[in-house]
Amino acid sequence: MKAMIFDKLVKPKWQHRNPDVRKQAVESSDDIALLTEIAQQDESSIVRRTAIRKLDDLNLLEKLAKEDADSSIRELSSQRFRQLLCGQKTSSLNLDTRKTWIEQSNEAELLEYVAEHAQEFELRLIALNKIDRDSLLGDIAINDSVAEIRLAAIEKITQQSTLERVYKTARNKDKRVSRIAKEKLDTVLAALARPGIVKEECEAICQRLEKLNQKQGKDLNIASKEFQQLQTRWQTIEKEVDTDGKTQFETLKQTFEKILAAYQAEQAKILEREAVQKPIRSAKQQVCEQLDVLQTDMQALRTSHEVNDVAAIKTRLQTLHQQWHDIATLDSSTEEQHWQHRFERGYNAVENQQVELQTQEEMAKQLDAICQEVEALLENDGALNKNKLKSIRERWTAITQPQASIAVIADLNQRYEEAITKLDVNLKAVSQKRDKVAQELKQTLTDLEAKLELGELHNALPLEQEAREALKHVEGISTKRYQELEKRLHACVVKIKELRSWERWGDNLERQRLCEDMEKLAAESENTSEDAEGNDLEDIARRIREAQKAWKKLGSTDYSHALWERFNKACNIAYKPCKVYFQEQATLRKENQAKKEVLCQEVAEFADQIDWEDPNWKEIHHFARDAEKQWYSIGTTDRKTRKTLKEAFDAAMKTINENLEAERKENLESRQELINAVKAAQAISDINKAIEEVKHLQSQWYVSVPGKRKDERELWKKFREECDKVFDRRKQEQEERQKERNNNLKARRAVCDKIEALAALTDEDAKSIPAQLSALKEEWHTIGLVAKKFADDSQKTFHTACKKANAAYQQTLVDEQRSQLDVLKAKAMLCLELETDKKDVESAKQAWNALSALEDIEADIAITKRFEQAVLGQPNFSPIYTEEKEELCIRLEILAGIDSPPEAHKARMAYQVARLNEAMQGGHVKESADKMTEAQDIEMKWYVVGAVEGNYAWQLENRFKRAVDAFYSKRAN
User: Fold this and answer.
1) Are the CB atoms for 863 and 825 separated by under 8 Å?
2) Band of pLDDT at residue 388, cut at 50, 70 and 90
3) Domain's final residue, options 374, 408, 429
4) Cβ within 8 Å of residue 769, ≥6 positions away
5) Does some domain include residue 797?
6) Tens digit of pLDDT for each residue in 846-893?
7) Are residues 847 and 962 in the same domain?
8) Is the distance from CB of 741 to CB of 791 less than 8 angstroms?
9) Do 204 and 346 fall into the same domain?
10) Beta bridge partners of 877
11) What does the mean pLDDT of the chain come to?
């Protein structure tokens, strides 16, 4: 009983009067129902917030976020609700539950938050499909980590400005998103420009129709085609044109159709009449054209180089005259008169030319007969004389020729001049030839007489024969001159007969001399040693042969047989040592013949053994070269076998040489193709591929059968030069690339210098650092590559400079924030002094007015409201403000690393445990990476928190000041 009473008297901690106790109880409780009740009904907002942090009931959290009277509860509930829904906090809610919730929600602000912050991309995608704010869609298209989300976002964007921003920003991050943004942007711009384009097109079409309505006559045919084109153009814009445009077009269209219809009716009548007149006109035109053709043919006959057939032309002219009179008359007298004049003009011209041609034909026949006579004389020079030539010239001159140049007459004149000139030349040549023969005969007789006078019978006999023959060809000269020459020749013949008797005696003396010479040579030959040189023996043999020739030249009669025996014996004795030498040479020639026959056999066998399907060209080439050298190193052979052996050797070498030559030619062509391939490789844009191709081609260079050494050197030099062009190009590109990279390095350094200069900006100028830094970063990323050895250093310099610039900007923000905090602190101190009656109102107002307004509007409103309440003497003291300030003191003391007052140790421990529990349970614990920012945030909240009653306000103020001083002192050190 006592226990029950005691249980009733002792309440649970969550019902304790002290909010801190209740807070601790909530922190240690896992009872969802209890936490739900406390979150809705507890008096302390701190306790309620603690309970809310442990709930994951989305319905409850949504209700509190919308309906609770406490703004801090609404804010925390909304934050907790969003974090749970987005998976930012660990909870019992599974993905399907959260997906269902988002699918059912139509709250724009919530969906936008989920689309931007949800952990699972499925949630972000569901929310994304339900939002339409282009600026947010643009941020997602640029920043979301999942490509599918980015693509879904860009597909929903419709605003021009957002599309432009995504296109520019994503250009270097996501090419696909940037491309889609560009396509949609082009579509939007095209849609915006479409009305103006349609209006301009409508006006252009109507203007062209107005001009078409002014066309007349044949121009309407062209205009009708343009009208069809305008109608096609109109169909593409008709639905988009306004009423006035449509009315204007229809009016102009109907006007043109009426004009065109009237023109076409008129043309139909003209065509009907033309159908009747056309055959008549065509027939007349055909006759006139045939007259023109006949006239042209006759003009051609005038310039023809042949005699013309005038009768055939006359027949054609009569036929055309009859055809003209058979054609009907045209209904237009003017046109009929025109055709009649044309016919008469052509007919008369042809008739006149016919008369001229007939005269030309007769004249040509006369001239041709004379030409034939002259040409006959050219073939028979014997019938040629001066009187006949004179008669021909007179008959040619008697024919009167036309002054105008006619081809056939001109040809006959040329033919006559050429023939008559040749006759003149022939006549002159015959005369000169006779004179020359007579002169030569006279000189021959003079020479003959001189030889006979000297007794040189052997030299005189040929001259006698020459004089006899020449005398036969001097017919035509004067008789006196002929008889004189004949008389001189007869005298010479008599003298020759006298000398013949003396010749026999002289020949015997010459034979005796030859016998003596040979006997002397025989004596010399007997004394010749066995090892005499071949040149000496060959000289002896030569002298013997010359003596034998001289003996034969003296004749075979009128000398004794004994003299011949003497000469022959001496020759045989002299030739005896030569015979042995020549026998040895014969033996040597036979040996050479055997060697060459063996070589021929070896060559033939080698040729038979070669596998021409897979030949060893170097071996074959060396064999052929050595065989040729060996052949010519072998001495001479007998003359009768020399040709046969050479033919056998050439036949044996033929197959080898032909194949070698074929391979040499093919190999030369293949190497020339390699040179052409290298030239083609020079056109490859990728230098690395070009060099790889050239190296591959170099590996294919192979000489199977070389040509001439000079040609081989030239070909190799040409190949190397073409290859070097590619390698020189790589060297040039490398130099250009190096130059470009050096320029890029200079550009990078210039950007780094500009960024480092930003760090020196102060005050208002420093506020432009982010914009300038962003531009410089974009400029940096547009700069191309630099050399590898400088890449890391330049990148490091760039990041260092960026850090300096960011640090300078952050310092500016800190200084500006510090300035604002000092103003806010001064205003808060005025409020505190008024709230604790330590300052009179008037002096407080003066001090307040001396302070500038805050840039933070909410903070300025909050502190102004607090000051106004303090001035009125109605400060808003609230335990909530006390709790908040106590918590802020604890937070700053922890941040500054100092101890809290003894009486606050328990609260500090509770605060730290709460943060630890929240972290362990997966809750979101807000921590700033920058302690300075967090400290300034605490200060800002401290000064705008409402009034605290009594001296406790100054105790908290001093405690907070102690923490602030400790923090900034530690930062300074």
Assistant:
1) no
2) confident
3) 374
4) 758, 761, 805, 806, 808, 809, 812
5) no
6) 888 888 887 777 788 888 888 888 888 888 887 888 888 888 999 988
7) yes
8) no
9) no
10) 947
11) 80
Q: How far apart are CA 275 and CA 265, in angstroms?
A: 16
How many whole angstroms from its chain centre is CA 304? 58
- In the chain, count H helices and then E strands: 36, 0
Report which of 92, 56, 62, 83 is spatially closest to residue 74, judged by C-alpha positions: 62
- Could you give the C-alpha distances from 733 to 329, 689, 787, in angstroms and in order? 85, 14, 14
Query: Per-residue pLDDT tens for 901-925?
Result: 988 888 888 888 777 766 666 544 4
Do 202 and 344 belong to one domain?
Answer: no
| The residue count for the chain | 973
In a domain, 44, yes or no: no
- CB of 881 within 8 A of CB of 945? yes
Amino acid code (one letter) for 3: A
Rounded to whole angstroms, the Cα distance separating 770 from 378 reads 114
Question: In this structure, what token pair is assigned to residue 353?
Answer: 């030319």
| Same domain as 306, residue 216 | no
φ, ψ (nearest 5 deg) of residue 413? -60, -45
- Containing structural domain, residue 207: 195-269
CA distance 166 to 956: 51
Residue 3 pLDDT greater than 60, yes or no = no
Q: 286 and 326 share a domain?
A: yes
Please, what is the angle between helix 857-871 and helix 841-850, to 10°? 160
Task: Please choose, from the candidates 735, 615, 713, 626, the residue with its C-alpha nearest in 3D space to the C-alpha of residue 666.
Answer: 615
My answer on whether 287 and 204 are in the same domain is no
What predicted TM-score, i.e. pTM, was given to this entire model? 0.32
Pick from 600, 583, 590, 587: which is nearest to 637 by CA? 590
Q: How confident is the model at residue 527 (pLDDT cuts 50, 70, 90)?
A: low
For 111, the 3-state DSSP assignment is helix
Q: Which two tokens stand for residue 367?
A: 């001239």
What is the CB-side half-sphere exposure of residue 302 using CA atoms within 13 A? 17
Q: Are residues 222 and 340 in the same domain?
A: no
Calculate the alpha carbon distances from 158 to 131, 147, 181, 636 in Å.
13, 19, 10, 106
Tell me how far CA of residue 338 lies from CA of 282, 291, 687, in angstroms. Answer: 14, 15, 77
Highest mean pLDDT among 462-471, 536-545, 660-669: 660-669
Q: Output Rg (C-alpha) for the chain, integer angstroms.
A: 66
3-state helix, strand and coil shares in percent for the chain, rounded to the nearest 5: 80, 0, 20
